[in-house]
Hints:
With 236 residues, the protein is mainly alpha-helical. It has one domain (2-7, 32-235): Orthogonal Bundle (TorD-like), CATH 1.10.3480.10. Helices cover 62% and strands 3% of the residues. Helix 1 (32-48) packs antiparallel against helix 2 (57-75) and helix 7 packs antiparallel against helix 8. It is globular, with a radius of gyration of 17 Å.
Amino acid sequence: MQKLAMNFPTDMGSRSDREIHSPGRDPFAHSEKLHQARYAVYKMLSLAYLYPGDIEWDEFVRELPGILAEAADILELDLTAEMETLSGLSEILDFEQICCEHTMLFINNPHDDPVSPYESVYLEDTIMGRCARVVQEFYEQHGLAVDRQHSYLLPDHIALELDFMAWLIEKGMESGSSSLGEQLRFFSDHPGLWARRFLADVRTVTTNSYFFSLATVADKFLQNEKQLFFFWNQKK
């Protein structure tokens, strides 16, 4: 079976060959670069919400600002402030501190309840609820399994749902079909219902500029995704 939560995104190409959407134009039509940019953001955000010790941290933090900045340019997202923060932090982030902050934010906080990264908690107030089982079925229908390194995560973890969106986009690009119907269905039924609430909670709780900036980037991106899907659905 193929694995979720693994690799870094591929290069999105040079500026000269991008197809950037503009008002009044179908943003999904004939725009491979648009889909590459969406894939890259989903993939980097997925990695960002995994435990830092479980990814190639040095490579991730080095590549993050550039990949997000290039994707934001293609998607016409204003991430100027967040990119300045992340670029400035990329050389000085302390790995151990980020691991500790991740643990306190999402896993175990001795002073307060952590921010749960699970859909079931937001939509059903439980762990491994119906949401998680439905998401698991999505993965299995596409022949996917969670990578062994991340097998401790439940299916509806934010990182896995974002990674599945990246996988659907990549699948569409490789096959020559957009797979937009599948993307819209999964987004609308899962991350689109709860992820922005999760990100708002992260920004409320954290005092760490790295996690705050990431949550802001993710929130702006998911809002843009919602608008793109709405536009596409109206055009069907």
